[in-house]
Specification:
Strand content: 25-35%
Strand order of the largest sheet: 2-1-3-8-7-6
Number of helices: 15
Radius of gyration: 28 Å
Oligomer: single chain
Largest sheet: 6 strands, mixed
Number of strands: 18
């Protein structure tokens, strides 16, 4: 079944609030086998909303609106959907009683315009809203099912979970399910993944493959549509095997896994500890690591060595090296990693130094230049990165690269006798 979601409210178009309702509806409906193919946001304007309803009814089987069910004159969704469907509004006493009871319990004065929310289109199914005054509504018109949901996210989710989703699953039984499984990658860029998987992507049908970058991760999402979850799992597993035959070495986890969790799991498995010396990331790597519950078992400590004085006095970076090579250099990165490991006494140490911008860059050392080094009992190594983007993007990408190098080092240490290579040359941000 094809679905269009219409979110209403001028505040959405002004960027005053984030449209979380669509994200929730899209995820939940797709998981239940409904194809969310269109999304429209429209302000509180009768003419424009009527035009949007007309377009949606032409191209979707189910049209879901959120917002515009309140008591004010600006809340016009219900009235316009009813008009479009040729349905008269009437006072629903059950809804009216609920509104008055709820407001009385909240010690809220009941205004005359609250009665507006008890007006229901004739022929509509009322979706009870126990946590708010505006009920959800379902109205069939021709080949289109119109669903009207309250705008406040907490109310919308309640109505969906308790009323709408059970109704849709019964009404459109046999619709099948859509299930997704996500592979999470590190150490490779989106364009490189696309190139490696190009042949599989060209020949995809069901399941489908989608690539995207988010929060410093590269994600490969496999999505299958099937009659049952078990059937979807079999289809996804077959596709996953093909994909991992090509890019399996870059996969660190799945679905809700995070790179800090993957590093933590490896540290736990090897019973090792880690420490960080951070300059341009300002503690972001350590913050990401400590987002994981129980990380105190393996994260021994960190130093935010933002100035040369701290680099020299706290983690023992040679002042001559700092003066001669500069804080953003391979030599300093290596000394930072070596120094913080010695000072804190960890098994593994990782350092980050670079130029996050927007100012301070030169032709020789441009904004986005970052050196990341690792040190452990087997030796030390450094990589040079050139990241692009705004300051916060450079910091995040550098932090994720540092975590990636941590995981690489831990995995390589499992191979007996394997030593770290000396500092590599240029490793661009896509690697």
């Amino acid at each position: 079944m094809k679905v269009e979601v219409i979110t209403t409210g001028t505040e959405l178009l002004l960027g005053e609030i984030i449209n979380t309702n669509f994200t929730y509806l899209a995820q939940e409906l797709n998981a239940r086998g409904f194809d969310v193919l269109y999304q429209t946001t429209v302000g509180d304007n009768p003419e424009r909303l009527e035009a949007v309803l007309d377009i949606a009814a032409e191209r979707a089987d189910i049209v879901i609106t959120s917002g515009g069910l309140g008591p004010t004159r600006g809340d016009i969704t219900k009235e316009l959907v009813a008009k479009y469907c040729g349905a008269e509004l009437y006072m629903n006493l059950e809804v009216w009683n609920h509104i008055h009871t709820l407001l009385s319990k909240r010690n809220v004065c009941i205004a005359d315009n609250n009665d507006k929310q008890a007006m229901v289109p004739s022929g509509a199914i009322v979706l009870h809203n126990a946590v708010g005054t505006a009920p959800g509504l379902v109205l069939e018109h021709g080949n289109t099912t119109f669903v009207m949901l309250p705008g406040p996210p907490f109310e919308l989710k309640y109505v969906c979970r308790h009323e709408l989703f059970p109704y849709l699953e019964k009404r459109f039984a046999g619709n099948g399910i859509i299930k997704s499984h996500t592979l999470k990658l590190y150490g490779i860029g989106e364009s490189n993944v696309a190139e490696l998987l190009d042949d599989i992507i060209i020949h995809q049908s069901n399941p489908t493959i989608a690539l995207y970058a988010r929060h410093g991760d590269i994600l490969v999402r496999l999505t299958a549509k099937a009659d049952s979850e078990a059937e979807a799992d079999v289809m996804i597993a077959a596709m996953q095997k093909q994909v991992e035959n090509v890019i399996g070495t870059y996969v660190y986890g799945y679905d809700d896994d995070t790179l800090p969790e993957a590093v933590g799991r490896e540290l736990m498995a090897q019973q090792k500890t880690i420490a960080f010396a951070e300059s341009c990331t300002g503690g972001l790597v350590s913050s990401l690591m400590t987002d994981v519950p129980g990380s105190s078992v393996y994260l021994k400590g960190s130093v935010i060595s933002y100035t040369n004085e701290v680099k020299n006095q706290v983690i023992r970076v040679n002042k001559t090296v700092l003066d001669k090579k500069g804080a953003v250099s391979e030599e300093v990165a290596l000394e930072m990693a070596r120094g913080v490991r010695e000072v804190i006494g960890s098994d593994l140490a990782v350092s980050v130094t670079g130029l996050a911008g927007p100012g301070g860059g030169t032709r020789r050392k441009p904004v986005g230049l970052v050196y990341i080094a690792v040190a452990d009992e087997n030796g030390e190594a450094c990589r040079k990165f050139n990241f692009s983007g705004a300051r916060t993007q450079v910091k995040l990408r550098a932090a994720m690269a540092a975590l990636g190098m941590s995981l690489d080092r831990l995995k390589s240490s499992l191979k007996k006798g394997k030593k770290l290579e000396e500092c590599s040359n240029d490793h661009d941000a896509d690697r």
